[in-house]
Design a protein that fits this description.
The protein contains eleven helices and no strands. It has about 250 residues and is mainly α. The longest helix has about 35 residues. The protein is globular, with a radius of gyration of 20 Å.
Length: about 250
């Protein structure tokens, strides 16, 4: 890690906890979404939560929510504070600027997800104690850790691309949340509607039962890795200092 990259990371970390009313407000804003997934669901499901798909769903949603709150600040925040021109005129390389801003959002999203993962384990065991600690299955553990990291990278890269052109942080946040959450919500609504149709529901259930979970997780992981690669390249191509300064 270069000295310039460390400088960008330090700056982004400092700015994150100095915005919107200070550290307490930022921590509260970040942890509330995670608390819903890490406390409410395990409380309702008990031990059954640990070997269900719910931890994987939480590992996908939490990074989306966290990055949706943090990464829009990356460039739109600089533009609002009138510090973007100064930042772009510095000797920092394009890659250090982009990666430095991405690392903070990705790291924060992943750390919050890991904390949520641990809290869910504690809550599930506490509410449905069986005399011994029950942990997640190996597949769910691996899927949650890997997918949460990839989703954090994917959402952050998308957020940076949006933030590069957004006039305000609010605009960047709204656009990013609509971009990453709308397809998920659409699939959820479509799935709910489809499952109300008895014949189709039975067919889909049979298909899902026949799919190997390991293969499914592997395919999703590969797709996310490819998507992250192309989005990172798109962010680098879109990062043009001259246009950003003039804009």
């Amino acid at each position: 890690m270069t000295g310039d990259l460390k400088t960008v990371i330090w700056k982004e970390r400092k700015l994150l906890f100095n915005q919107r009313g200070g550290k307490k407000q930022v921590v509260f804003t970040l942890l509330v979404p995670a608390a819903v997934f890490s406390i409410l669901f395990p409380w309702q499901e008990g031990i059954g939560f640990l070997d269900s798909p719910l931890p994987v769903f939480a590992a996908i949603f939490i990074p989306m929510l966290i990055t949706g709150l943090t990464v829009p600040e990356s460039f739109a925040g600089e533009r609002e504070r009138h510090t973007l021109e100064t930042l772009l005129a510095s000797r920092l390389s394009d890659s250090d600027l982009l990666v430095g801003k991405l690392i903070i959002s990705v790291a924060l999203a992943w750390i919050v997800t890991l904390i949520s993962f641990l809290v869910s384990f504690i809550v599930a065991n506490a509410t449905d104690w069986s005399g011994q600690l029950i942990f997640y299955t190996p597949l769910i553990t691996a899927a949650s850790l890997i997918l949460s990291l990839l989703v954090a990278v994917l959402s952050s890269a998308t957020g940076v691309i949006i933030s590069l052109r957004a006039s305000t942080v609010r605009e960047a946040q709204q656009t990013l949340m609509a971009t990453i959450m709308f397809p998920v919500l659409l699939l959820g609504v479509a799935g709910t509607v489809v499952f109300t149709i008895e014949g189709i529901r039975d067919q889909i259930t049979k298909i899902m039962d026949s799919i190997n979970p390991f293969v499914l997780v592997s395919v999703v992981t590969i797709v996310l890795i490819i998507a992250c690669y192309f989005l990172m390249r798109a962010a680098m191509r879109r990062f043009q200092r001259d246009r950003l300064i003039l804009g």
